[in-house]
């Protein structure tokens, strides 16, 4: 890149981390933060096989989230396989001198909630984790992406990673979101429009007045879902909202370091005239509350729509795709979305379990009863404590929902929290893949307020009438 | 890592768009060590029904394709979760090459770390290849990474792959060994970076 040539936020983040670039175009990048979890055991195994040590244990943080129980005792885990997964993480982090936010730690939670919450994820950093939803951290103006086990092992051993620079894509959302419409709806609207691989090979920058108006929680939700459009990373330039969020957090810079950070972060914006490989624009006012009906996040429609009819689909491959999705989901072609009855709800996950998400769901549920059973699992133990201070747990319990501990829980269903076969779940999570929430489970993705609306009515519902006269 | 140069084998069509890593290896198998035999769990819920019986109509269960070492997939193969164990499951089942119009980014990177070739062809080329092996399931397919070609019943088409991933597969490169030759550059970067970004290290001492 020529000096002073207009650059994108992503160009600047990339350049600040490039240690070397080979003739074949691969660059060696410095990693500022590396998060590990129970699933990282394959990578630690690779280290052991090589007899290697961790290069920068002080830049590596462990969080127990994927397998942790949300109900019952966390000190004595009944299931021996799950207990072993948590213990293995404890052993691996202890052996290599890595800080762990384990089951007993008040900072425990889902890694993509905990990183920003503790001030570990900062603007300008390069953040990786062996989890595809690492894109979440880009909400702070970081370059953050998910990696596989071999890459995790490489980062542990060298604190670096070989990468080819992705293409640059900007998604601009201007205007004002209507009441009852949330960051999740922007994410689902984007994925529905560009499909589940529309952004493959690209780093996304989210821009525009509707993005700037989002809270940090909303931005984290939006960047979290970048991977569902195929992009390994999504990012938002840091602004006053970002600085207000970061300041004073436990691991955030302080004193002179904070002042130096502010100076550096003020340059983290896309210059006027900088080139993107692809530009896309959405109008915020056009976005309605959205739910998914199928088995990919791209199968998303505004709540006033109907399930597609394969018989009306001219493209044979698309018709086959629709038939298979409807068959798995147990849905008749043409069914109005608001006529789909649900069996349970789940509020949780790295996508939508931060304090603002719980407040949005509680605003709908207050004084009402859920017609179906459901689980609410806060994104972190800190979020859980804050929600309890605000009395939100009371609202959920009074509605008949379970108030659990924090973890990945029913989003990925490996800690024992699963949706039973053929049951239909309204969920604040990120993936409606076949079997994602349990074998033969049927998942409908939507925002926390929309899940709360589904709980109150027992079917997929537009939250907006339920908010009338309430402070959302 | 085992090198990949050229392979002639049975190729199984899996015409499923967005075949994500949750399908390739359902999450409940992720706690198993690789030595436990992840190949058996490959596509578990598509290959078997809820009672554990094989679904006879699933392509990998059909006699001609049981021993397939190549998969011809559809768009966005391997999207979703970063789980590298999805690649282990394919590899340990015996698959050495997946041909598809596009791949999930993280999956393609994981594949190149483990000797699994991800060969990109156009949508219509994938559809045509699928038709051809549907017609003659026993016809072997040859994938040549040097030439970047796929041959089936006398017809040859070219495929695309990132040149670095190609070199990595052809040579059986080990990234860590390569990175070790950059240790001086890494140390120099680290020193300069600490001065340039004094705020970038975690503030709280522990």
Blueprint of the fold:
The complex is a heterodimer of chains A (472) and B (206).
Chain A: H1 9-17, E1 18-21, E2 26-30, E3 33-36, H2 41-50, E4 60-63, H3 80-95, E5 99-101, H4 111-117, E6 126-129, E7 143-146, H5 149-158, E8 160-164, E9 167-174, H6 183-194, E10 202-207, H7 209-212, H8 216-224, E11 233-235, H9 240-246, H10 256-265, E12 278-283, E13 290-292, E14 300-302, H11 316-329, E15 344-347, H12 355-365, E16 374-377, H13 381-389, H14 392-398, E17 402-404, E18 424-427, E19 442-445, H15 448-457
Helix pairs in contact in A: 2-5, 6-8, 12-15
Chain B: E1 6-9, E2 11-13, H1 21-24, H2 44-47, E3 70-72, H3 85-93, E4 97-100, H4 105-112, E5 117-120, H5 123-135, E6 141-144, E7 149-152, E8 155-158, H6 163-171, H7 175-180, H8 183-196
Parallel strand pairs in B: 2-3, 3-4, 4-5
Antiparallel strand pairs in B: 1-6, 6-7, 7-8
Describe this structure in words.
The complex is a heterodimer of chains A (about 475) and B (about 210). Chain A is globular. In chain A, helix 2 crosses helix 5. In chain A, the strands form five sheets. A five-stranded parallel sheet of chain A has the order 5-4-3-6-7, sandwiched between helices. A five-stranded parallel sheet of chain A has the order 17-16-15-18-19. In chain A, strands 11-10-9-12 form a four-stranded parallel sheet. Chain A has helices at about 10-15, 40-50, 80-95, 110-115, 150-160, 185-195, 210, 215-225, 240-245, 255-265, 315-330, 355-365, 380-390, 390-400, 450-455; strands at about 20, 25-30, 35, 60-65, 100, 125-130, 145, 160-165, 165-175, 200-205, 235, 280-285, 290, 300, 345, 375, 400-405, 425, 440-445. In chain A, helix 2 links the parallel strand 3 (about 35) and strand 4 (about 60-65). With about 475 residues, chain A is α/β, with parallel strands linked by helices. Chain B is of the alpha/beta class and about 210 residues long. Chain B contains eight helices and eight strands. In chain B, the strands form two sheets. A four-stranded antiparallel sheet of chain B has the order 1-6-7-8, covered by helices on one side. A four-stranded parallel sheet of chain B has the order 2-3-4-5. In chain B, strand 6 and strand 7 form a beta hairpin. Classes of the chains: A alpha/beta (about 475), B alpha/beta (about 210). At the A-B interface, strand 2, helix 2, helix 3, helix 5 and strand 8 of A face helix 4, helix 6, helix 7 and helix 8 of B.
